[in-house]
Design a protein that fits this description.
CATH architecture: 2-Layer Sandwich
Shape: globular
Helix content: 10-25%
CATH class: Alpha Beta
Structural class: alpha+beta
Strand order of the largest sheet: 2-1-3
Largest sheet: 3 strands, antiparallel
Distance between the termini: 30 Å
Order of helices and strands: EEHEH
Number of domains: 1
Strand content: 5-15%
Length: about 80
Amino acid sequence: MLEMRPDCERCGTDLPADAGGAFICSFECTFCAPCAEELDDICPNCGGELLDRPTRVGKALANNPASTERKHKDA
């Protein structure tokens, strides 16, 4: 099951699990759409392809909440 990380690792933008606009690689590194575009859809951590993260809504989200652990590191 996807961890559904709550923020962009690069800029810190909030990325709610029930909204589109998040991009992930196979290791679930997570980025917002503008950052993914600037990265040419390549994960800077592992070199993997960044793809649209699916949303999680309704009962699925209620029963399996998104992670609250933020990954963005202030420079």
